[in-house]
TrEMBL record:
Cofactor stoichiometry and binding remark: A monovalent cation. Ammonium or potassium.
Domain of life of the organism encoding this protein: Bacteria
Pathway where it operates: Cofactor biosynthesis; coenzyme A biosynthesis; CoA from (R)-pantothenate: step 1/5
Name of the molecule in the record: Type III pantothenate kinase
Cellular compartment(s): Cytoplasm
Function: Catalyzes the phosphorylation of pantothenate (Pan), the first step in CoA biosynthesis.
GO cellular component: cytoplasm
Species per Swiss-Prot/TrEMBL record: Paludibaculum fermentans
UniProt KW Cell membrane keyword: no
Major location category of this protein: cytoplasm
Binding annotation for K(+): D129
Needed cofactors: NH4(+); K(+)
Annotated family: Belongs to the type III pantothenate kinase family.
InterPro entries, sorted: ATPase_NBD, Type_III_PanK
Amino acid sequence: MLLAIDAGNTNVTIGIFDGPRIITRWRLRTVHDQTPDEWGIKLRSLFALEGLPLEKISGIIAATVVPPLESSLTGMARRYFPVEPMFVTGHTETGLNILYDNPREVGADRIVNAVAAIAKYGGPCIVVDLGTAITFDAVSANSEYLGGIICPGIGMSIQGLFTRTARLPMVDFRDPEKLIGTNTVVSMQSGLYYGTICMIDGIVERMIAEMGKDTKSVATGGQASLITKGSRFVKIADEDLTLEGLRMIWERNRQ
């Protein structure tokens, strides 16, 4: 079995694969200074809850955009499994031709998403990842990573409204009851929801105009299903896109 870890700035998503099939997944809060032993204790608890023995894991692959996590994940993998983990970088063999000016600048999660999207949906393709930041990644039909766009994430917008105003409350991100709010909470939820969707649709529409009308769009991340519900251009929500990309890269490199 394969342990796949997607470590972002806000959340860590963990998946267990038995061959091509994902058995289970967990989402944890990112703790930047977590020690290898703390990682090990958490994973042992999660495995025990699912009735999965640690010794069944024969490989570990990770994509992280938080540099301090790499050393702690490496220590955890060596001590508790024990295997040598593989970390995805801009120089990992993925089958993608990365056309970024400096491939090292491309986040590992963006590379992984592009690999999974081109394999599952074909190209040209746009991946919208709703994480700490909202990223748009363009992949050609020839498996070329063309580049992308980075925007502030939904959580940043919510936090900004709350911390930078005197009387606006903290709200959750949801499909509002109505477009025109008649109280402060619904007005904020409407602004966040439709503002995010309109921003995404506006960018995706311009990318499709540049990449061609046959370009597909897929969303992943915590709020993907909410976005596809209201979007005009992004209709596919794929919760496991990043984890599946990690599995594909592992299969490509494990020899």
